[in-house]
TrEMBL record:
Protein source organism: Candidatus Curtissbacteria bacterium RIFOXYA1_FULL_41_14
InterPro entries reported in the protein's UniProt record: Class_I_gatase-like, Peptidase_S51
GO MF entries: serine-type peptidase activity
Family affiliation: Belongs to the peptidase S51 family.
Pfam family name, one: Peptidase_S51
SUPFAM superfamilies: Class I glutamine amidotransferase-like (SSF52317)
Protein name: Dipeptidase E
PANTHER family, per database record: ALPHA-ASPARTYL DIPEPTIDASE, PROTEASE S51 ALPHA-ASPARTYL DIPEPTIDASE
Keywords: Hydrolase, Protease, Serine protease
Source organism superkingdom: Bacteria
GO BP field: proteolysis
Amino acid sequence: MRLLLISNSGKPLYWWCKKEIADFAGDKEVTFISAATIYDPNEYYQKAQESLKEVGVKLNHLNLKSPQDLINKTQVFLVAGGNTYHLLKKLKTNGMLDKIKRKVLDGAAYIGISAGANIAGPNILTTNDWNVVGSTYFNGLNLVPFNINPHYNAPQDKVLTSAETRDERIGEYHVFKSNPVVVMEEQTYLTLDDNKVKVGGRGKLKVFTKGRKSKEFKSRENLDFILMK
């Protein structure tokens, strides 16, 4: 498999990771999935199209009304950000989730940005999003054996705030689940090519493994170990 998992926010859309997306896609057309947005999917697609055409990426929009034979022809998926619960629910109820997974396992490349990265793991229980859609389905594509948590900030001094930190919430997750959780700072990404996993971008990531101390990694460092059962 080939995956590019990105932690991204800010405007203009994809301002810092356009080249990475273009390099990953190569000369192939990209199927853009806008289902994570709770607003206007066509407007979202148009903004992405405008941004990525600057680096030569051609997008085809797979919205919930698209003929699903587009999935069968896809060589590269780009599953965009938004609300993770909304994304997963829409893909599942419209019969697209399993088709996308099968296509990726058969060789299509996968780009997941924020919510799109969240659904690449076993489940979405470590997302930052609120379940405003009242979804009861939480299983991800399980393309990788770890959860993704994007938009990570290191915990602040507890003297200054009593708020529960992201690290503490991941500790709670590991009371019930055993798979690793990878947290990614903004402008950070992971690439997976077969069994090779590498960190890229301007930030760092941290790997939380149940029963062990978390460990930080920076750009160009290797994470192959995280694929081991």
